Amino acid sequence: MMKIKELKIKGKTFLAPLAGITNLPFRRLVKECGCAVVCSEMVSAKGIFYNSKNTVILLTSREDEKPLSVQLFGADPDSMAQAAAFVEKMGVVDIIDINFGCSVKKVIKQGAGVALMKEPKTSQAILKAVRKATNLPFTIKIRSGWDGSGHQAFEIADIAQDAGVDAIAIHPRTAVQGFKGFANWDLIQEAKERLTIPVIGNGDINCVEDAARMIAQTKCDAVMVGRAAMSNPYLLSQIEDYVTRGTYKEPKPSEIFQKMERLIELYVDYFGEKHAARMLRGRLTWFVKGLPGCSAFRQNLARIETSAQAITLIQAFKNRVC
Fold first, then answer.
1. What pTM was computed for the model?
2. Would you tell me which CATH number, out of the four given (2.60.40.10, 3.40.50.150, 1.10.940.10, 3.20.20.70), belongs to the domain 2-245?
3. Would the CATH topology of 2-245 be identical to that of 253-321?
4. How many CB atoms lie within 10 A of CB 198?
5. What pLDDT was estimated at residue 291?
6. Apex CA 31: angle with CA 304 and CA 214, to 5°?
7. Is CATH 1.10.443.10 the classification given to domain 253-321?
8. What local confidence, expressed as pLDDT, does residue 174 receive?
9. What is the dihedral of CA 63, 67, 71, 76, to 10 degrees?
10. How confident is the model at residue 147 (pLDDT cuts 50, 70, 90)?
11. Is the pLDDT confidence value at 180 over 90?
12. Is 102 tagged catalytic?
């Protein structure tokens, strides 16, 4: 069984942090579908430091999603350490993660995200400060760096391990690639051979077989899945079944429609009826890609004002498909 510090992880799957996506409702849905560890969307350390209401609300959790990893971003050791201490004091978080991989311009301009991979001294100061500030299991998520060599990834990984980081997730694309091109899984394998802490592989996992190939090729301790889980929340449990038993089941369309209705329930509970309905116009379309009539369904969803309207559309679509 994989352990991050003293935390036992019952499985090999992590939901990747996705800005605007891995909010509490979506995390709870994916957890219900069998994911081992879910992660929050990126949370600003400075937002926590200044007690921003919009930031702190991102830390809302429920017992049924545990273990929960919260990902912090920032470039200042003091505010990062204070944010980590604040998160631990809340008592709802199981893992603190630091973002070293976001390549969005507004994050890079702050010196945060993947920009830290060009600043090993700052990175070391942040990691040491956070490690001193919290006793929680502590992880980081990195890219390969600013070029394809992986040199920066290995430098940061070595610094992290020496600073007391308990596990590392690697998305082996460069900063300039974003999500384009291909992830170089060889870098995950090299990191696994180099480090003694657990290594979590991320990148280009679009199906169960991709995850199995990554584990076999790189010997990584677990896999992290992001965008592919948006259209199939069962994917992570399918991966668990395949790597442990060698087989898995495809969800029936009726099960997908059931989870769509469950997501509505979770969104309304968290965001309220009006806000949830607006957000669900786009999010419910994730689940129906490729199904006959999905274009018309998406167009109808774009006009919903209430959760009841969304459920009516789902049930009508279900009756045509199932």
1. 0.95
2. 3.20.20.70
3. no
4. 19
5. 84
6. 110
7. no
8. 93
9. 90
10. confident
11. no
12. yes
